[in-house]
Amino acid sequence: MTPDELKTKVGTIIVLMMENRSFDNVLGHLRHPDEGNRLEVNGVEDFKNDRYMNKNTDGIGIRPFWRADAPFVSDLPHNSAAVREQMNFSIFANDFLMDGFVRAFEDQFHTIVDDSPVMGLLRAKDLPTTSPLASQYTVCDNWFACVPTSTAPNRLMSMCGETAIAETGIFLPEQATVYDWLLAHGVRWRVYAAGLPFFALMPRIAPLILTGHFRRLSDLANDVANESAADWPEVIFIEPDYYDCPIHFHPPCDNHAPLAMAPGEAFAGEIYKTLTSHPGKWSRSVLVCSYDEHGGLFDHVRPLAVKYRHPNGVAFDTTGPRTPTIVAGPYAPKRGVSHLQLDNTSLLQMFAERFGSPGETYSPQVLGRSQQGIQSVSALLDASAANGAVCTLRDGAAVGAATVVDNSDMRKAFDGAIRAIVGQHQTEAYAKFPELRGYVSGP
Question: What is the CATH number of the domain that holds 213?
């Protein structure tokens, strides 16, 4: 799609960004002969292929296997050191071998297992929302985490185009966000959050979260049904209820281990049904279902050689591993597969094309990534795709609940953010999020 086609045909861009899954874990089955048998998808075709084998600490080869959807015992390793080990750059091959996922898991948990959960792959039956969407719309099998590290830096890259941190810490650094960019360009935008929004972790964003730009997920259905075209947002971000947050307004559903996929599948399914319930709005929409990073789960494709440098010294030489992304809507080719080199800054490129001046780029940092081969989401959209049919989703199976972990850095960050928001904006915070009152004051 050209910028002119974007401006005339696309009314609303919707981003649903989930947590911590790799492409092979979620969509690798599409190529397998017992599942999708879609040879055009770069997935996992034969578990016996040595290119997929990861050796454990004892030197025993562990191959991918079908793992039924279920909670994990705990979170999985995905900080920068773990990701380096997982991708395993070989100076002899001068390439990434992508065979260190099992060892990284064993290093973190000091255990040796024959069925390391990081090698488990989901099947279509485990994905009652994602599987139908993958059949109806466009699968992106070359979409990567922006940088080879954990959640916070990747969400900053996704929503700012840059990151001043290399690891997840307690608070997000004060950076210009996509919200600032959209406000500066006069774009109508909104966040619908099932729980606390992620950018509650950036202190200066807290007052904005308490405005009408941020709404609770429960408002979405009414807004879709009743809001006029003049008021309906041009950009929508939809956020799950994050597992790591210590207070929940909705069952945790971000797909972050140790959660199973089932809660996130149900959440995404309800979002899709709500958005498609208004044919007029849906006919001018693009929905991107993406992930922030791979979460420590196996993927066999080497990262892209895309360098990132921040003035304070944060530096990366590649992307992270692939993440599972589907682009949906009338302009996404039906049952399509995009091999374009993409990451979450591809969304920022599309925003600049759709809402910027002719030739305007989102930022120097995002331009730098495009000059290294990262393309815009617009490059896979087709103005003549005519993919307006709404797909039928399946009912998901119930799975057990995940164990609550109460000492993660992200959990501490959310706790600090809640207390800061209430401390500085108590009246507004309690009015918008009455659940915070009991959390902060105690029973």
Answer: 3.40.720.10
Q: Is the pLDDT of residue 398 over 90?
A: no
In a domain, 256, yes or no: yes
CA-CA distances (angstroms) from residue 156 to 159, 163, 217, 345, 352? 5, 5, 22, 10, 17
CA-angle at 260, arms to 255 and 264, nearest 5°: 45
Query: Which residues, including other chains, have CB under 8 Å from residue 321's CB and lie 6 or more apart?
Result: 22, 23, 83, 86, 87, 98, 144, 145, 148, 293, 294, 299, 301, 303
Q: Are 165 and 152 in contact (CB under 8 A)?
A: yes
The per-residue pLDDT for 405 is: 63
Query: Average pLDDT, stretch 115-134?
Result: 95
Tokens of 65: 């296997």
pLDDT at 397 over 90: no
Amino acid 103: pLDDT: 95
Supply the pLDDT for residue 442.
61
Domains of the chain: total: 1
Rounded-to-integer distance, Cα 396 and Cα 269, Å: 10
- Interatomic CA distance for residues 193 and 253, integer angstroms: 11
The answer as to whether 71 is a domain residue is no
Rounded to whole angstroms, how far apart are CA atoms 53 and 62? 6
pLDDT of amino acid 111: 76
> 255: phi > 0 → left, psi -120 to 50 → alpha, else beta; which?
left
| CA–CA dist 37, 252 (Å, integer) | 32
Is 215 domain-assigned? yes
Range of the domain at 163: 3-22+125-380
96 is a domain residue: no
